[in-house]
Amino acid sequence: VQLQASGGGLVQAGGSLRLSCVASGRTFNRYSVGWFRQAPGKEREFVSANRWSGGVTSYADSVKGRFTISRDNANKSVYLQMNRLKLEDTAVYFCAAYGLGQGTWTYWGQGTLVTVSS
User: Fold this and answer.
1) Looking at residue 30, what is its pLDDT?
2) Residue 62 class from Cβ within 10 Å (0-12 exposed, 13-18 middle, 19+ buried)?
3) From CA 77, how far away is CA 2, in angstroms rounded?
4) Which of 14, 39, 71, 83 has the fewest C-beta atoms lying within 10 Å of its C-beta?
5) Which is it for the CA torsion 59, 92, 78, 45, positive or negative?
6) What is the mean pLDDT of each run of 10 residues along the chain (118 residues)?
7) Which of 48, 86, 41 has the alpha carbon at shortest distance from 67?
8) Which residues pair with 11 in a beta bridge?
9) What pLDDT, on the 0 to 100 scale, is given for residue 52?
10) Which residues are 34's β-sheet partners?
11) Nearest Cα to 44, choosing from 92, 8, 2, 97?
């Protein structure tokens, strides 16, 4: 599976952005997908995930209520709608995926930069 993320950019605090990630492969609906981010000087951290089984979603506490993950299996895409952005949301955002039986995030996109300004 190859992942291609896009949608990053410069936005003012309080604004919104929508990230997209398009996947290759034939069985996208059997993959759990997620978003991670890495701020300058910090380790990569989990943002949100959508599990293939049951469509269960999860969020980091720091983004709950502001970010929404969604997926479109027909178009092999996953999205991250980010609202009420804060300065601390500035980071490179990565989409990731793993398939049935893998259990760990195996496939990674190249990252897209989100910069939130005051």
Assistant:
1) 87
2) middle
3) 11
4) 14
5) negative
6) 95 98 86 95 97 87 97 93 98 94 89 97
7) 48
8) 116
9) 82
10) 49, 96
11) 92
